[in-house]
């Protein structure tokens, strides 16, 4: 028996795991007591990790045109077909669609190949569905996508506000930490703002079950309320921000009276004012927000409305204070670090970061190769599949994600995939929904085999270690990308033999060798303190929060503690936010508001978690949660079957009548895929409206009709 330390591959908490290995099997997993994200805790999903392993359902051989093949043939086919599309139609006909499940090293190599050497800007990720609005809000407010807080802040706060976050189910170890903090400090208050009453409400001193989509109204109302009651931190505003008057004027365009705000949010005015008072009267406030805020056509504005209130009260850059966006996936943050979004170039730089193209070009150039970086941003996830639908993109490499289930309008996504002349799929699981569209399938390594790093929601880089060899001919994604790069003539720039070499290059680029780069950028994103690690040091790397550099060799717990932001003048920007309703309008044909989300014991499209009977026991079937009054009016009963009709299809599920559900609204889980239930694709119900700034789809605000299904 041996023990190996690694990181959980599920949510953005990024818990450390100790795996017990006997012969060639992981027989047990425990929380790593030394990991600062979880200090030994694990949730149900994490503690069942070893139950989801094994060779069943794994892809173990490459497949070319439906026939099992070998790696050489498959890699030759990938390279020659990508080249043919590029030669015929130009680089912009190529695209990659990645995943927050990939390791940072995989992401780095994919970005370098597609943007740097194939020259296409169209590389995006399923993290677009998760935190893109928070990224955009950070950039608008702070001048850079940087999360100010750390998990300890939840324990140091006087008030924790959870907005659009079912922490108890979706980030359970953070919920456990908050629960313990509350037990230790009876003065710590928790406010939950969510249309649904969830298990998270058990911790709530105050629950605000607001109308879906009214978050921006609530937080612009809070800003106006603070101004009216002289609860602003004028000194902080003056010294560290710009744009306050415009932000306040926008907030005051709607009636700023508590009664009016409460009416617009469908809340009790007294409870709302209690929240306003608590927020304004405490300095140490953390507002933790997640998908309920982000997955909206005004998600970026909602994020900025929250950040505005923190800036206006000086509640940022202090222990126990700040707006805190929590990512859904284990490495959504790592992808942001290495250019894994279509609007990024590389290493946190955008296309319009001064001098960025030149610097990345010089950094990636070799003796004989010069990168051909695109001029500007590429298509974001939803737009990417629309470009495929139009025939503009004709070659797509999908890695570790299933857009045929998870994107809005899965009917259109599937049609686009069917039409795309070249679809390459790299995955560890034989994922029937997607493989149906694949011309070439590459078997990838999975958790316990992958070797590299991930970064969690508090900017903490942790090692995910390769504990077992990949089964059959499964290989690491970075390796497959490098092999294709070599076949395309770019071998000189992709000669990595180990993930530590990729990490080293990423760390050096983040630090802008030779002291190049804007000061603020260097201050925030520099991990050059981790450059130069040899294999042994890389393997032994302990969890550490960026930035990590000469000034902060042990990492950085909190950002903006000196009140300087990454804008040219160092001032944070307050954004004028005007509340607007969801784009998916309700009407007589589709009168119910649809909310989608996770359940406690499943992960994404269930390819792994459904392998554990223990996890399946929690919610064994697709379901539709509905308020008792609506159930009665629509003639459906607990445990009966019902059908939802949405923008692009139907969803059949078992009815769960819940008093936690608001009237006029229904909730469905997002997990069930075509293999488990082809008639319960939540993506089919959602129309493809996106936030105009972030490109994040409006997955929390579908419009559906519900019909009872007769039981035969
Ligand atoms: Fe894994 Fe998240 Fe659970 Fe931690 S909280 S064990 S990272 S799923």
TrEMBL record:
Alphabetic keyword roster: 4Fe-4S, Iron, Iron-sulfur, Metal-binding, Molybdenum, Nitrate assimilation, Oxidoreductase
Gene Ontology biological process: cellular respiration; nitrate assimilation
Cellular-component GO terms for this entry: membrane; oxidoreductase complex
Domain 4Fe-4S Mo/W bis-MGD-type span(s) in chain numbering: 1-57
Cofactor(s), by name: [4Fe-4S] cluster; Mo-bis(molybdopterin guanine dinucleotide)
GO MF entries: 4 iron, 4 sulfur cluster binding; metal ion binding; molybdopterin cofactor binding; oxidoreductase activity
Similarity remark: Belongs to the prokaryotic molybdopterin-containing oxidoreductase family. NasA/NapA/NarB subfamily.
Protein name per its UniProtKB record: Nitrate reductase
Species the sequence originates in: Billgrantia kenyensis
Residues of the full protein shown: 1 to 712 of 927
């Amino acid at each position: 028996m041996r023990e190996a330390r690694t990181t959980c591959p599920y949510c953005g908490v990024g818990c450390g795991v100790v795996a017990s290995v006997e012969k060639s099997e992981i027989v047990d997993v425990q929380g790593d007591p030394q990991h600062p994200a979880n200090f030994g805790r694990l949730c149900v999903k994490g503690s069942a990790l070893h139950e989801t392993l094994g060779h069943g359902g794994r892809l173990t051989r490459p497949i070319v045109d439906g026939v099992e093949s070998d790696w050489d043939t498959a890699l030759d086919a990938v390279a020659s077909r990508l080249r043919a599309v590029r030669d015929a139609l130009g680089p912009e006909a190529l695209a990659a669609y990645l995943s927050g499940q990939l390791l940072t090293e995989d992401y780095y190599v994919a970005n370098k190949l597609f943007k740097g050497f194939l020259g296409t800007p169209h590389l995006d990720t399923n993290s677009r569905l998760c935190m893109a609005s928070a990224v955009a809000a950070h950039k608008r407010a702070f001048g850079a996508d940087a999360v100010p807080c750390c998990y300890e802040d939840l324990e140091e706060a006087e008030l924790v506000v959870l907005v659009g976050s079912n922490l108890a189910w979706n980030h359970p170890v953070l919920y456990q930490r908050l629960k313990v903090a509350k037990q230790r400090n009876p003065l710590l208050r928790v406010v939950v703002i969510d249309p649904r009453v969830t298990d998270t409400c058990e911790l709530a001193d105050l629950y605000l079950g607001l109308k879906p989509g009214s978050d921006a109204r609530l937080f612009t109302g809070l800003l106006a309320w603070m101004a009216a009651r002289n609860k602003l931190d004028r000194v902080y505003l003056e010294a560290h921000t710009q744009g306050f008057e415009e932000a306040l004027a926008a907030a005051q365009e709607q009636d700023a009276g508590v009664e009016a705000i409460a009416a617009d949010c469908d809340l009790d005015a007294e409870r709302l004012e209690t929240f306003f008072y608590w927020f304004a009267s405490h300095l140490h406030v953390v507002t933790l927000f997640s998908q309920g805020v982000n997955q909206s056509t005004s998600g970026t504005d909602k994020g900025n409305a929250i950040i505005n209130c923190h800036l206006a009260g000086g509640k940022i850059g202090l222990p126990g204070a700040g707006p805190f966006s929590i990512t859904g996936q284990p490495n959504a943050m790592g992808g942001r670090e290495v250019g894994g979004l279509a609007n990024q170039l590389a290493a946190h730089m955008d296309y319009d970061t001064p001098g960025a193209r030149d610097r990345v070009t010089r950094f990636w150039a070799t003796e004989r190769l010069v990168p051909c970086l695109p001029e500007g941003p590429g298509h974001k996830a939803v737009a990417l599949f629309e470009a495929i639908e139009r025939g503009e993109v004709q070659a797509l490499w999908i890695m570790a994600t299933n857009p045929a289930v998870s994107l809005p309008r899965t009917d259109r996504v599937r049609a686009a995939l069917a039409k795309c002349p070249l679809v390459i799929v790299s995955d560890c699981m034989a994922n029937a929904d997607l493989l149906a569209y694949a011309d070439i399938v590459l078997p990838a390594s999975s958790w316990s085999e992958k070797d590299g790093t991930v970064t969690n929601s508090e900017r903490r880089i942790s090692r995910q270690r390769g504990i077992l060899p990949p089964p059959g001919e499964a290989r690491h994604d970075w390796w497959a990308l490098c092999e294709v790069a070599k076949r395309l003539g770019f071998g000189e720039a992709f000669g990595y033999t180990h993930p530590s070499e990729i990490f080293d290059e990423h760390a050096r680029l983040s630090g802008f060798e030779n002291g190049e780069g804007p000061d603020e950028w260097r201050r925030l994103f520099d991990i050059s303190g981790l450059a130069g690690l040899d294999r042994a040091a890389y393997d032994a790397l302990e969890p550490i929060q960026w930035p990590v550099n000469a000034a902060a060799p042990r990492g950085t717990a909190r950002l903006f503690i000196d009140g300087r932001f990454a804008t040219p003048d160092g001032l944070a920007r307050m954004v004028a936010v005007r509340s607007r309703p969801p784009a998916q309008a309700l009407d007589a044909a589709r009168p119910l508001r649809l909310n989608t989300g996770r359940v406690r014991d499943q992960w994404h499209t269930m390819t792994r978690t459904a392998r554990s009977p223990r996890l399946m026991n929690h919610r064994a079937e697709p379901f539709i949660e509905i308020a008792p009054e609506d159930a009665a009016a629509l003639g459906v009963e607990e445990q009966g079957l019902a059908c939802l009709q949405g923008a692009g299809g139907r969803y059949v599920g078992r009815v769960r009548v819940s008093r936690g559900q608001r009237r006029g609204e229904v909730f469905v889980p997002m997990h069930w895929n075509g293999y488990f239930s082809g008639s319960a694709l939540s993506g089919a119900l959602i129309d493809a409206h996106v936030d105009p700034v972030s490109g994040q789809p409006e997955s929390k605000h579908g419009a559906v009709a519900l019909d009872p299904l007769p039981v035969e």
